[in-house]
């Protein structure tokens, strides 16, 4: 029993932000590279928060780095936490309002 409890405590937790980008009735998604964890799956653009970084700042940075998109305004839509076998993800979803 203690092993199961400790295993859960030792999992790495990632804080991640994703951007919901809508344009002309379409939603922008990106396909994860095949050589990455969960490769080939579709996702909203975004990424991991750096230390002491806000959701908005992280999303602005990630969209600029990944897609050369500059954003100004976002709207917080929600947050969900999901436990995978080896790690936990806390995902915050922001709608891009530009």
What does this protein look like?
This protein has 98 residues and is an alpha+beta fold. Helices cover 21% and strands 41% of the residues. The strands form three sheets. The protein has a four-stranded mixed beta sheet, with helices on one face. Strands 2-3 form a two-stranded antiparallel ribbon. Strands 4-5 form a two-stranded antiparallel sheet. A hairpin with a 2-residue loop joins strand 2 and strand 3 (26-27). The longest helix has 13 residues, at 55-67. The radius of gyration is 15 Å and the shape is globular.
State the main characteristics:
alpha+beta; 98 residues; four-stranded mixed beta sheet; single chain; 2 helices; globular
Largest sheet: 4 strands, mixed
| Rg, Å, rounded | 15 Å
Oligomer: single chain
End-to-end Cα distance: 50 Å
Overall form? globular
Q: Averaging pLDDT over every residue, what do you get?
A: 90
Topology:
Elements: H1 2-9, E1 12-20, E2 22-23, E3 26-27, E4 30-31, E5 42-43, E6 46-48, H2 55-67, E7 74-83, E8 87-96
Parallel strand pairs: 1-8
Antiparallel strand pairs: 1-6, 2-3, 4-5, 7-8
Describe the structure concisely for a colleague.
The chain has 98 residues and is α+β, with helices and mostly antiparallel strands. The protein has helices spanning 2-9, 55-67; strands at residues 12-20, 22-23, 26-27, 30-31, 42-43, 46-48, 74-83, 87-96.
């Amino acid at each position: 029993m203690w092993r199961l409890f400790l295993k859960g405590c030792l999992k790495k937790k990632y804080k991640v932000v994703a951007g919901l980008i809508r344009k002309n009735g379409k939603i922008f998604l990106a396909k994860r590279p095949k050589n990455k964890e969960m490769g080939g799956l579709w996702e909203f653009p975004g990424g991991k928060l750096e230390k002491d970084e806000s959701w908005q700042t992280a999303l602005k940075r990630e969209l600029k780095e990944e897609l050369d998109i500059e954003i100004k305004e976002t709207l917080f839509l929600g947050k969900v936490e999901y436990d995978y076998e080896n790690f936990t993800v806390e995902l915050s979803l922001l709608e891009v309002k530009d």
